[in-house]
Amino acid sequence: QVLLVESGGGSVQSGGSLLLSCEASGYTHSRSCMGWFRQVLGKAREGVAGICSDSRTQYADSVKGRFTISQDKAKNTLYLQMNSLKPEDTAVYYCALADGDPWSLLSPTPFRFWGQGTQVTVSS
After folding, report:
1. Residue 62's CB: how many other CB atoms inside 10 A?
2. C-alpha dihedral over 78, 83, 87, 93, to 10 degrees?
3. Residue 109's pLDDT band (boundaries 50, 70, 90)?
4. Contact between 57 and 7 (Cβ < 8 Å)
5. 99 pLDDT band (50/70/90 cuts)?
6. Rounded alpha-carbon distances, angstroms, from residue 95 to 35, 45, 69, 73, 102
7. CA nearest 95: which of 116, 76, 119, 110?
8. Is 120 within 8 Å of 90 (Cβ atoms)?
9. What single-letter DSSP state applies at residue 26?
10. How confident is the model at residue 41 (pLDDT cuts 50, 70, 90)?
11. Residues with Cβ < 8 Å from 75, sequence gap 6 or more?
12. What integer pLDDT is reported at residue 30 of this predicted model?
């Protein structure tokens, strides 16, 4: 059973930083990609950043230069360092895992496994 558990969400002021973590367990395939998505109530889930086992990364334009995705393969943990946070970054953040090597890491479709989400709130 694949399990993804996010942590690190919280409330910060505009301009602040947060580090999200996602610990994965139960997945044994060597080729995979992981991603961070976010969702605001009433809106579609959007891709934030993704990374594959070959270290290929992809970022949404809205977070380029502010967010950094990384992974610690030894710890089976995915990270999202979020700097210069803005109120529009407020959302529930989800980590997700996709089999293989999908072309787009910002589309939810290829991602088969999802965490429960962690709330990020940025106040102005």
Report:
1. 13
2. 0
3. very high
4. no
5. confident
6. 6, 12, 11, 15, 16
7. 116
8. yes
9. S
10. very high
11. 23
12. 73
Share of the chain above pLDDT 90, in %: 86
pLDDT digits 0-9 by tens, 48-94: 999 999 899 999 999 999 999 999 989 999 999 999 999 999 999 99
Own/partner long-range contacts of 110-116 (Cβ < 8 Å, ≥24 apart): 110/33, 111/35, 111/37, 113/2, 113/4, 113/27, 114/4, 115/4, 115/5, 115/6, 115/22, 116/4, 116/5, 116/6
- Give me 91's structure tokens: 């959302």
The whole-angstrom distance between residue 90's C-alpha and the CA centroid of its chain comes to 14
Flag whether pLDDT at 29 surpasses 80.
no
Size of the chain in residues: 124
Backbone Cα Rg of the chain: 13
The sheet with strand 3-7 has its strands ordered as 3-7, 18-25, 77-82, 67-72
